[in-house]
Design a protein that fits this description.
Elements lengths: L3 H10 L14 H10 L5 H14 L6 H8 L20 E8 L7 E8 L1 H9 L5
Antiparallel strand pairs: 1-2
The protein binds zinc ion.
Zinc ion (ZN) binds next to loops.
């Protein structure tokens, strides 16, 4: 098997026909792309990235596009921080009117799962 770096260069060269591809031997911009490619979790991931890129784009990726593509998925606790409904906690607080015979009804603080948390659990194969 080829070394990861050589494979990264090989994959990058598949994009050499794209606009903005760093030309010239030892071009530091090309080296930056190679460095970014080396953050891929596997050789197959590199190849897949280039396959997808060639289908979707006519310009060469910048290193950031490559780094972003290979960023590990956010840990579960950070998954839903963008949720507008629960503010990212996964829980929605509400007050529940509790009526027990013989007692004056009162409001109790309660919490229920937000849709985003439910989706997250089921997406991971769990049960809600
Ligand atoms: Zn939510």
């Amino acid at each position: 098997m080829k070394k990861k770096r050589e494979k990264g260069i090989e994959q990058l060269n598949r994009m050499s026909g794209l606009r903005g591809f760093p030309q010239g031997k030892d071009n530091p911009a090309f080296e930056s792309l190679v460095d970014a490619m080396l953050t891929a979790p596997s050789l197959a991931a590199m190849e897949r990235f280039v396959d997808e890129w060639l289908k979707e784009n006519d310009v060469c990726p910048v290193p950031k596009s490559i780094y972003d593509a290979f960023k590990p998925p956010a840990p579960v606790s950070e998954w839903n921080t963008g949720c507008q409904i629960c503010g990212g906690t996964g829980w929605i607080s509400f007050t529940k009117r509790v009526a027990i015979p013989g007692l004056k009804p009162y409001d109790a603080d309660s919490a229920k799962r937000c849709e985003c948390l439910i989706n997250r659990i089921t997406a991971q194969g769990g049960e809600v």
